[in-house]
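Hallway conversation turned thread

IA: we were arguing at lunch whether anyone had actually written out F420-dependent oxidoreductase, MSMEG_4879 family end to end. Turns out nobody had. So, for the record, here is the sequence (310 residues) and right after it the C-alpha cells. Reply here if something looks off.
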Amino acid sequence: MEIGVSLSPATTGNAVDDVVAQAREAADAGLQAAWFGQRFDYDAIALAATVGREVPEIRVGTSAVPIYPRHPLLVAGQANTAQAATHGRFRLGLALGARSLIEPAFGVPYERPITRLRDFLIATRSVTVDGVVDYHGETLTAVTVRPAPLAGAQPPPPLLVAAMGPQALRVTGELADGTLPFLAGPRTLEQHIVPTITAAATNAGRPAPRIFAFLAAVVTDDIDAGKTAAAEHTAFYDGIPSYQRVVALEGHDRAADLAVVGDEQVLEDAVRRYRDAGATDIVVTETDLLGPESRSRAWKALGEIARSLG
C-alpha cells in the first residue's frame, strides 16, 4: 500500500517554491506520493511535473483535473510532458467536476457527463499509449494530424478518475487504471465502489483497478479545534450531489463527519479500516488545517504507518 498526501501551496511568497519544500518534507517523513487538486490559481499537471522533477523520491499525481472544458489532445500532451519530466512517476487523475462549478466558470454546458468521460478516456489513452488518435466520439473529436509520441514519456502515465457513482465507476473500470474517491468511507468503498469498478474491469479484461482512497485527517490533541476546522473546510462539499450521495451511503449527514480527527493511533486505525475495505492506496488530505506543526505530526505518523504496512 502506498501512502501519500495532498499538497496545497501557501498564499504568500512563491507558491511553487513552497509546495516543492512541502514535498521534500513529505518525502523525508517517509511518504511515497504527493497529489495536487486542480484549482483556478495554478495548473495541477504543471505543478505535479515540477514537484516530481525537483523531488525524485516521490511519485506525483493530479486529484483531479476536470475534463470540462478541456480537450484530450491537450491534456494528453501535458500528461506526457509530466511523465517525461518525472521519469515515469506521474499519474493523471481526471474528474467530471460539478455542474455548479463548470457552467458558471467556463460557460460550457455540463451535458452527457458519462458519455463525455468515455470519449475523453478513449482519446487520451490512445495518445498516451500509441502517440496517435483518430477518434470521433459522441461528444468530442480527437485526431492527431501528425504522430505525437513523446520521448521519455514511458511507460504511459496511468489514467485515474475521481469516480464514485455507479455509471462513472463502470466506465472507469472499463477504460482507466483506477479511481480516486474522496469522502467515501470504508462502508461505501467495500459495498459500492470496489465491487462496481472491479467487476467492470474484469468484464473488460483489464487488470484489477487501483483504489486511491482520499481521507481528510487532522492529527491533534485538541479534538474540538480539529473538528471545527474540518467542518469549515469541508462544508463546500455538502452542496455537491456526488459528495452528498457518498456521505449518505456512509450513514452521515455532512462531509465533516468523515474527517479523521485525533492522535496518531486514531489516524493509523483509520488507514487500516480503509485498507481492509479495499483501498489499495491511501492519500491523506487536510493535514494542514491546524498549521504546520499539526501537519508535520501527521506526516511523520503516516510515514511510520507506511513503513509498518510495507
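OS: looked through it. The mean pLDDT is 97.
IA: good, adding that to the notes. Residues 74 and 124 are 9 Å apart (CA to CA).
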